[in-house]
């Protein structure tokens, strides 16, 4: 099939072009932590696909016409109507971003000592479970453990492991199951409809509520259509509707597949649970018809959700990711296979075998991409997931040393991605030149955002 992005640029933004000495200085001043870099020192920003998508003229037109009434604004009704049609949940609550939706829902479902089961909790999701004194247990399927395998649904939850917990001594402590589509913490891999259907059946048999973390529901639907038998002739909207229909509700950041700078929602079937969430929402986020969002963002999201389900858009975006994955492979850089859509996960451990986990090969590759090409991305390896001793030396490494290259929606063209591939290829020609890093300073919580490093 021929694919191309079904949009063109009407307004553009200049991007900073820097020299290597300038980047060396900027990275040193940032304590070798990309989160500390000023954006005007970044040429290609692949740190996240969240809130970074380019909005359409239709979204901006809708935002201009937004209704800023405190209660019952027309913008809210447009927002709710798009989400009701998509999810069929009777209760839709707007929230300013995904982690706030998590906090509000989880505080109504979990309590100290309770357990949340997931394919993988995203980092804020885990933090919101743990802040309630509950326990977050990740149960990724066994196939995910083989980074090179081309199994189509490596985002699936391990249902045998879930059943073992539900029928074991901890069974009565399980407060919920949360299935993350696509599995951002697990290589951006999709979850199959068969897995979701079976997860739902299992949870219902044990009286445990099941929710989606649906931040990338449209991209998951696209990968289901491509990879799961019986779905080839469905539209992304039909697949997404079916997914929402299999569970009791969802939390979803709309900064990803809502293609909006800000926004999220909670969708629920249960009226009593929705009522408890609404009380919390009003006390902490905002009234139920804006939930901490500006009216313009309610309208941007409503329009973004219509655009994101366009098969031409999803097909072109998936092709963009697959092409960059192929270019990385051609350059000798392995990625987590098969490529998903919102990000590529580079296998830095394999590219930089001269660096032990204690010198953080993922972080080293992320730093090198910045120094070599002004490209910003983030490590997902021992720096993020490993455990440290009191001298900030690594004690337990992460199972993998990865770098996530996130792909903002509708922002960069093939030319930019060719540039990224060229920079990667240049690094891969002499990988042994890439230095390792040591931790200079690391706070106890949310360490990857705040730590300071130095070459070692
Ligand atoms: N769930 C998933 C799967 C996510 O990827 C994110 C955010 C959230 C929840 C939280 O949503 O940012 O709106 O509060 N992921 C971003 C990322 C930050 O870069 O992957 P939020």
TrEMBL record:
Domain of life of the native organism: Bacteria
Residue ranges annotated for the Aromatic amino acid beta-eliminating lyase/threonine aldolase domain, each copy included: 45-422
Pfam families, per database record: Beta_elim_lyase
Cofactor: pyridoxal 5'-phosphate
InterPro entries: ArAA_b-elim_lyase/Thr_aldolase, PyrdxlP-dep_Trfase, PyrdxlP-dep_Trfase_major, PyrdxlP-dep_Trfase_small
Keywords assigned by UniProt, alphabetized: Antibiotic biosynthesis, Pyridoxal phosphate
Record's keyword annotation contains Ligase: no
PANTHER family attached to this UniProt entry: BETA-ELIMINATING LYASE-LIKE PROTEIN-RELATED, TRYPTOPHANASE
Family statement: Belongs to the beta-eliminating lyase family.
The protein's name in its UniProt record: Tryptophanase
Organism: Amycolatopsis melonis
């Amino acid at each position: 099939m021929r694919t191309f992005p079904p949009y063109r640029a009407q307004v553009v933004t200049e991007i900073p072009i820097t020299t290597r000495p300038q980047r060396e200085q900027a990275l040193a001043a940032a304590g070798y932590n990309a989160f500390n870099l000023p954006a005007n020192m970044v040429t290609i920003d692949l740190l996240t696909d969240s809130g970074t998508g380019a909005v359409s003229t239709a979204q901006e037109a809708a935002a201009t016409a937004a209704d800023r009434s405190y209660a019952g604004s027309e913008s809210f009704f447009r927002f709710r109507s798009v989400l009701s049609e998509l999810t069929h949940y009777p209760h839709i609550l707007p929230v300013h971003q995904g982690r706030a939706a998590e906090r509000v829902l989880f505080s109504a479902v979990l309590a100290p000592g309770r357990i949340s089961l997931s394919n993988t909790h995203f980092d804020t999701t885990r933090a919101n479970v743990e802040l309630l004194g509950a326990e977050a247990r990740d149960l990724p399927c066994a196939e995910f453990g083989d980074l090179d395998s081309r199994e189509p649904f490596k985002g699936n939850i391990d249902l045998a492991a879930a059943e073992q917990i539900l029928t074991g001594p901890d069974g009565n402590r399980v407060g919920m199951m949360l299935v993350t589509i696509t599995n951002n913490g697990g290589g951006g891999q999709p979850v199959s409809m068969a897995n979701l259907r079976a997860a739902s059946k299992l949870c219902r048999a044990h009286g445990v509520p099941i929710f989606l973390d649906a931040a990338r529901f449209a991209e998951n639907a696209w990968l289901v259509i491509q990879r799961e038998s019986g779905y080839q002739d469905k539209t992304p909207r039909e697949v997404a509707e079916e997914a929402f229909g299999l569970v009791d509700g969802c939390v979803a950041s709309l900064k990803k597949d809502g293609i909006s700078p800000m926004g999220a929602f909670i969708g629920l079937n249960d009226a009593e649970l929705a009522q408890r969430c609404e009380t919390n929402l009003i006390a902490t986020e905002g009234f139920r018809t804006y939930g901490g969002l500006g009216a313009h963002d309610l309208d941007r999201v409503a329009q973004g959700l219509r655009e994101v389900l366009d098969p031409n858009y999803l097909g072109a975006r998936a092709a963009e990711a697959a092409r960059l994955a192929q270019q990385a492979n051609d350059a000798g850089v392995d990625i987590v296979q098969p490529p998903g859509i919102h990000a590529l996960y580079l296998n830095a451990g394999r590219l930089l075998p001269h660096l032990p986990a204690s010198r953080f090969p993922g972080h080293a590759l992320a730093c090198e991409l910045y120094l070599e090409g002004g490209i910003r991305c983030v490590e997902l390896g021992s720096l993020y997931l490993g455990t440290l001793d009191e001298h900030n030396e690594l004690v337990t490494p992460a199972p993998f040393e990865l770098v996530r290259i996130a792909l903002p929606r509708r922002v960069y063209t093939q030319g930019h991605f060719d540039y990224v591939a060229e920079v990667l290829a240049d690094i891969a020609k002499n990988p042994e030149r890439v230095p390792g890093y040591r931790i200079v300073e690391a706070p106890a919580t949310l360490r990857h955002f705040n730590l300071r490093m130095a070459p070692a």
